[in-house]
Amino acid sequence: MWSFAVKRTGTTAVTLLAASVIIFAFIHVVPGDPIYVLLGDTATSDQIDALRHQLGLDQPIIVQYLHWAGQALAGNLGRSIFFQAPVLSVIADGAETSTLLALITIVWVALIGVPIGMVAAVRHGTWLDQGLSGAAMLMASVPTFWVGLYLILIFAATLGWLPSSGYPSIFDGGLGNLRYLLLPSLTLAAPNAALILRLTRASMLDVSREDYVRTARAKGIRPWQVVRRHILRNALLTVVSAFGFTFAALLSEAVVTETVFALPGIGRLVVQSILRRDYPVIQGVILVIVVIYLVTNLIVDLSYRFLDPRVELQ
Amino acid sequence: MSRANIATWLAPFFARPIALAGLCVLVAMVVAAIFAPSLAPYDPYAIHPMIRLMPPDAAHWFGTDQYGRDTLSRAIYSARMALLIGSGVVFFALITGIPVGVFSALFPRLGHVLMRMVDVLMAFPSLLLALGLIVILGPSAANSILAIGAGYMTTTTRIIYGLTLRLRAETYVEASRSMGSGTIWLVVKHILPNLISPLLVQASFVFAFAQLGAASLDFLGLGAPPDIPSWGNMLAESRTFITRAPWLLTFPGMMIVLTAFSLNLVGDALRDRLDPRFRQVFGGEG
Amino acid sequence: MKFGLGLLVRGAATIATALILNAQASAAGMLREATIGEPPPLDVMVTTADVASVIGRHIFETLYAWDSTYTPRPMLADSDSVEDGGKTIIIKLRQGVQFHNGKEMTATDVVASMIRWGKFGARGKLLMANATLVEATGTYEVTLKLSAPNGAWKNLIADVNGGLAIYPEEIAAKAGNQPIEQTDYIGTGPYKFKEWRPNRYVELEKFDGYKPRREKSDGFAGARIANFDKIRFIPVPDVGTRVSGVQAGDYDYAEMISGDLYDTLSKDKSVQVHRSNAPIFGLFFMNSKEGILKDNYKLRRAIQTALDKSQALRVAFGPKDLWSAEGSIFPKETFWYSAAGVEGYSPHDAKKAKELAKEAGYTGTPIRLLVSTNYQAHYDEASVFTRQLADAGINVQMIVVDWATLLKMRGQSEQWDIFVTHHTFSPDPILFTFLNATYPGWWNSPEIQALRTELTNSSDQAARKATWDKIQALIYQQVPVMKVGDAYTYDIASPKLKGLNANGPAFWNVSTK
Questions:
Q1: Contacts of B264 (CB under 8 A, 6+ apart)
Q2: Which contiguous run of DSSP H or E holds residue A251?
Q3: Disulfide engineering: A203 pairs with which of A166, A238, B145, C58, CB 3.0-4.6 Å?
Q4: What is the complex's ipTM, to 2 decimals?
Q5: Which pLDDT score, from 0 to 100, does residue B253 have?
Q6: CA–CA dist A27, A43 (Å, integer)
Q7: Which residues does A contribute to its contact with C (CB < 8 Å)?
Q8: For residue range A207-239, what is the model confidence (pLDDT) as tens digits?
Q9: Residue scoring higher pLDDT (A162 or C101)
């Protein structure tokens, strides 16, 4: 078990290292002199000299990378051209919104996807199952921003029940402000719930074919108990591992949703930074999200392995 | 293709009528794209400020947008962009995935390194990867293909790798190799033909999700230029008017859903026809 | 498993309760305006961006301010006298005016501000280029000596946009051409700068040491009473979101709403519609410094010949009573209205345009049009014109960025050939950005230089009007800018607000019913 943990962590570290090289190269691959890419075109000669010295741009690229990586580990991701503030603090500003959005979305995904997936699996082969699976596939074919715009049209603009955009912090206005995240989280949840639904259904069906389940049935244990005791627990392991992937992927998918609902999160920050050519922020956000993505996957993998020792590892 | 082959290909569609419907929709889409100039009632670019924001009526079945352009015509022309992006992404995914996947499976040591590199690319969530590439390359329809393609290249490569590994373990392949046949011959005679069916399935799904990806990029303003008809662009422009002109929101969105859903249905039907050992690679549903 | 489910249910119930309770977002005493986007730094002397001056005018004040007829009235100044044929201006300042840091405003602050404005201000050179002397001739008296009289001096220093805002001496003295830091946003206005959270808001708070003028308020002039404790300016680039935000009560005021929504919003009880009292006009600036349009006046005229501006105005502003396809730079009812050169305003002749372009040597090179999405009208105008020019064989490539980026990019002459903006109403032609040689576009042909000097150096209104006629004719001949047309924009606000300012968003004197 521990050797697996060490090996898996090692793999993650190596992957992160390789990814960081790509992210580092980003600034140098974007069209333009890296100095102006980092400082913006209105940089003064003092600023240019200072940065040139700080980054060691006249040194071999390996040294530059090491320098950058060291700074990144220390939390210095550079300075936003637009905000004239450290990239990390700009990102941290958006963290509250994006994290809350992701968490609430996961709740919806779990509440909707898992139970309905279970129902579809239990009623496997019936019209209900076909209908639900079809609906899930339909949901997965819908662009998230379209769902979002429709929700705004119906619930915000026409009915006026919910706000259409923005997010005043709950630290400013109380828990009631969570209602600003209701429509956005439903928007994000739709395709992901569909995916989890299909995954739950599939893994439950897979498990139900396993020998030990057939044995349980043969022994005469009532179907519902079979489901609860054996199928559910084991199938859910697969689903749980999918949640890890989902959470990290949400941080990326939220880009469009945050734009539609004008939420001050990290996703919208990326889009605006692209439109503003604020390259240090783009680079910083990609790095942060990749780190979160890899670490989340690592944790999920390890817990999966920990929870079910019978799982075969490739 | 022989008659028997065509029959086996179409069998899963007749077994499941909804998949057949999906196939018909796709054929209609392709026809619309090819014959757009004849099918579209108006010039999709022509501006007519006097008839802007008109709801659907006899003259304009889908209504008009804020420039007075006919929404139906723009929607039909957008099928071209959809077809272009979809095929481009699939092509890109296959053209990179097949060589890398196949050779990685046949030459384990090389394969190990290459698959690691694919893993590194997979560390980037696909939309972020696309955005990053757009920043480097600049927004345009062609670059959208590369940007979205990069994300699907990784999964496609992995799938081909897995498939080839299984094929490699087949006895006849082993036998062939022991008889001294060259690698290229092996690939062409045994590997590739067996990859066609699963790759068709993968192509359907990639084509489907490429639609959503392209629509997202266009919506964010980072894809095709704004006046080029594409469903994503149409949705982006509809935002200001969702209360005043909801038809601008409805029709382009429906087209995207229709296309992606049909492709998913087709992919599903094709996957059911697959050899069970291949089906697993796609996460079979049993 | 059961425990987890229970937790989930309880969590959901909490959220549901919070939703049902539906807490009000508006804190007592705070006014929230939804703006078109994130502002550039608020150093109003060096930027002409409206988003900066809308916020800036609450923080900083000028010596004079415009009333609702755009006549300059004393604000920080008390009185003035002009001697020596207009070449000496003596301004007496108000006494007891405080800066936000507690210091009293005196002549040395004004002098330092004028010097900095003259060197680096957006409109500074228009007045100060001819300044031979500016000094404090008393604790509350400033003397400005010019080498030639400038008939527009009062208007020049009454405009806060790129104008002579009064900063404390220490800040003005060390400020160069880079915008001042946020810690230096110290002015004399009824509100002081509190906080800037990027992407979220800029927040101002009431300045208790403010002493309003005694005159009745009229436009930007007269008494300014701060009724709200705090004001927040929230960037909301999407106009649909701004509208639904006011309807839902998330914002109290939203600026620059699309003409298309005017009819429905006028009837909507959940908002009040606030029309501007003076029209704005869209402007397409040509690059006179470098690039394909640098001095190719014929090509520029070819471009303008192809355009049907009514189409663009219709798309950008909607109902006919909100816009007018007027070729004269000044609207009809004003003193400066002129018919010179207006045949060239909107010929909408694609064929002729094609010929002219050919004569001008145009071979199809893409012409880069820089436009932003924050101002929907700019984007619509650009889209329509691009299409019309394509029909005339002129290839225009739109470069779409957000407003903040456009403000930066337009300062880099190698990045664009045409950029889109709009101009708010100005009571004096000297204030037009396109007459300012340092403003992006950089129009500075020998002809305009001569006419500009003629315009500034006279105080005789009739003579200046005659000069303006010549300038307008030149504008249609050399086409440094293309005017799109006059448009009345409108903002919307919560029906509970009263005291809204006729000249534009300014939230002193505003209160809830």
A1: A137, A140, A141, B22, B204, B205, B208
A2: helix A233-260
A3: A238
A4: 0.84
A5: 94
A6: 16
A7: 40-42, 44, 80, 82-83, 85, 90, 93-94, 104, 107, 110-111, 152, 156-157, 160, 163-166, 168, 173-179, 182, 233, 262, 264, 268-269, 272, 275-277
A8: 777 766 677 777 776 666 666 666 666 677 777
A9: C101
**Which of helix, strand or coil describes residue C274?**
strand
Give Cα separations from C425 to B107, B213, C281, C470, C488 (angstroms): 73, 44, 8, 20, 10
pLDDT tens per residue, range C471-513: 999 999 999 999 999 999 899 999 999 999 988 899 999 998 7
* Cβ–Cβ < 8 Å for C94, C78: yes
The helix/strand/coil state of A200 is: helix
- How far apart (Å, rounded) are the C-alpha atoms in residues C377 and B232? 21
The neighbours of chain C, by the rule of 3 or more Cβ pairs under 8 Å, are A, B
Contact C120, C177 (CB under 8 A): yes
The tokens of C13 are what?
């119930």
Question: Which structure tokens are listed for B167?
Answer: 């094929």
A-chain residues near C32 (CB < 8 A): none
Amino acid B96: pLDDT = 92
CA distance C76 to C93: 6
Other residues' Cβ atoms within 10 Å of the Cβ of residue C439: 19
Tens digit of each residue's pLDDT (9 = 90 or more) over B224-251 = 888 889 999 999 988 888 878 899 999 9
Instruction: Tally Cβ neighbours within 10 Å of residue C366.
Output: 12
Largest Cα–Cα separation, chain A: 82
SS3 content of chain C, % helix, strand, coil (to 5): 35, 20, 45
CA distance C448 to C446: 6
What average pLDDT does chain C have? 89
Nearest CA in chain B to C401: B221
Question: 3-class DSSP state for residue C471?
Answer: helix
Rounded mean pLDDT, C146-175: 91
Q: How far apart are CA A126 and CA A115, in angstroms?
A: 17
pLDDT at C26 over 50: no
Neighbours of A82 (CB within 10 A): 22
> Would you call B187 helix, strand, or coil by DSSP?
helix
Amino acid symbol at B78 = S
| Chain C residues within 8 angstroms (CB to CB) of chain B | 238-240, 244, 258, 260-261, 264, 310-312, 314-315, 373, 376, 380, 383-384, 386-388, 390, 398, 400
Residue C321: name the closest of C483, C484, C489, C482 by CA: C489
Is the pTM higher than 0.90? The answer reads no
C366 residue type, one letter: P
For residue A52, what pLDDT is reported? 75
**Helical packing angle, A144-151 and B247-272, nearest 10°:** 140
Count CB atoms within 10 A of the CB of residue C492: 28
C-beta separation of A123 from B242 below 8 A: no
Mutate to test the interface with A, among C47, C244, C399, C414 (most CBs of A within 10 A): C244
Nearest CA to B189 out of B170, B203, B213 is that of B170
Cα–Cα distance for residue pair C318/C380, rounded to 1 Å: 11
Name all contacts of C324-332 with Cβ < 8 Å and 24+ positions apart: C324/C279, C324/C485, C324/C486, C324/C487, C325/C485, C326/C485, C326/C486, C327/C483, C328/C472, C329/C281, C329/C429, C329/C432, C329/C472, C329/C475, C329/C483, C330/C429, C331/C278, C331/C279, C331/C486
Query: Scanning every residue of chain A, which has its alpha carbon at the shortest distance from the alpha carbon of B241?
Result: A153
Residue C454 to residue C460: CA distance in whole angstroms: 11
Interface of B with A in 222-251 (CB under 8 A): 222, 232, 235, 238-239, 242-243, 246, 249
